[in-house]
Amino acid sequence: MSLSRLSSLRLFRQQCHVGGTWVDAEDGSTIEVDNPASGEVFGRIPSLTAAQVEAAIDTAQSAFIDWRARTAQQRADMLLRWHDLVLANREDIAILMTLEQGKPLAEAQGEVDYAASFLRWFAEEARRVYGETIPGAKPGQQIVVLRQPVGVTSAITPWNFPAAMITRKAGAALAAGCSMIVKPAEATPYTALALAVLAEEAGLPPGVFNVITGEAKLIGQVLTASPVVRKLSFTGSTAVGRQLMAQCAEHIQKVSLELGGNAPFIVFEDADLDRAVEGAMASKFRNTGQTCVCANRFLVQRSVHEAFVDKLAAAMAKLRLGNGFEPGVTQAPLINQAAVRKVQQHYRDALDKGARHVSGAVPDGGQGNFVEPVLITEVNPSMQLCHEETFGPLAAVMPFDTEQQAIELANATPYGLAAYFYSRDVHRCWRVAEALEAGIVGVNEGAISNPAAPFGGVKASGLGREGSRHGLEEYTELKYLCMGAG
Ligand SMILES: NC(=O)c1ccc[n+]([C@@H]2O[C@H](COP(=O)([O-])OP(=O)(O)OC[C@H]3O[C@@H](n4cnc5c(N)ncnc54)[C@H](O)[C@@H]3O)[C@@H](O)[C@H]2O)c1
Ligand SMILES: O=C[C@H](O)CS(=O)(=O)O
């Protein structure tokens, strides 16, 4: 049993954290959580009732009144204490993450560092929530602009980054002076609950950071039906984001949406091919292809297509699939059978429409949630994978001839989260970077995630930004004071 890997069971909580107390569902109902590597159920979390979610909102509202009145320095100090505790408990959080999400332990440790970096970034930024003054329209008049916290906020987060997708939201919200209710994905609640244990230990006042679990639709409905909750920050699929955005219309709740993507990764003939392959591996295979900014389509200029495919195949041959706890494993199980079926479906559809299998095992679904990395080429825009996110270890390469064609192919998707390209021509770098319809562009870079940068998408990939000062501003409202001459 992998729970025995934990140094203690202190962080393994099977209750929700509301208003500084640990609670079960009042009707006793629970949801099972399993290990995607084995299918073994290793825990149960409460499925809160609607009344309990409403009570959590009330608690968060009371906490907000006190939290907003603290100084920015006091909030920053607590966030920094939380950051330090997360890092001090890096190993146990990573173990819980690998257990519930599957990712290789080294990647889970990396995610803990990344998650902590948002707490630090926003702690530092808390003291820089500046307003402005503007000359008035009359003698003696001044226009003063304040930035104030929006109020109680909620976060609904996905399973693929169970820690970082929470701290990226909570760090910003708490720094701004908001309280937050987090609903993590059903598949990965334990990392979120471990963060709540550490938030409590860091001294965050009760009700400022709450973690609730249960039936997603019900919780989403209660959070969006409440006039007290002033903002929802959602990370997940475009389909669910669209639905939640419509629900938020009822009370004109502010909304941030970090949704799906279908990232193009373009390799021009003047690129450094070795660096392009390095970037391709980082982008495509992080979290076994289950990253919203994963390259979904490699567009490679025809003159270097064969060389790039050979080098990519050689790099992919070094990947090792296995249980995330085994040393040296780089590719872990996918989250569930639906994820496995999606990779199979995109692979089969591509082969049926003329793609060529280059390397890797055919994804036939015969290994539980484990899928070998697979490389195909001769991909064309009629294929499903060009329009939908694969979210798995299928590397699909499409040749192109001209820069204009590459840009058109890259933009031919409803999504616009990340895009990547490799070129050594500085003029082309500016041209292509400006032409790509994406919120994030990696120029000769495959690893683009950073707390200091504004992360987010355009088109069907979402609204708003996370990380950076822009991410903090999402949790504030502007108030303008018109100061008369008196
Ligand atoms: N843009 C980003 O920053 C980013 C980051 C991570 C993941 N993602 C996207 O998330 C998706 C994968 O995550 P997922 O499968 O967990 O997505 P999902 O939309 O199924 O679930 C995300 C969250 O929404 C909840 N949810 C589901 N239905 C709901 C409903 N009707 N009402 C309220 N909540 C509901 C889930 O329980 C989960 O907590 C991918 O599309 C990926 O690209 C985007
Ligand atoms: O899945 C997408 C996330 O945003 C992950 S990351 O921020 O790029 O690490």
Automatic annotation (TrEMBL):
Keyword Oxidoreductase assigned: yes
Transmembrane segments: none
Protein origin, superkingdom: Bacteria
Chain coiled-coil ranges: none
CDD domains: ALDH_F5_SSADH_GabD
One GO term of the biological process aspect: gamma-aminobutyric acid catabolic process
Pfam families found in the cross-reference section: Aldedh
Keyword field: NADP, Oxidoreductase
NCBIfam families on file: SSADH (TIGR01780)
Name the UniProt record assigns to this protein: Succinate-semialdehyde dehydrogenase (NADP(+))
Species in which this protein is naturally found: Halopseudomonas phragmitis
Gene: gabD
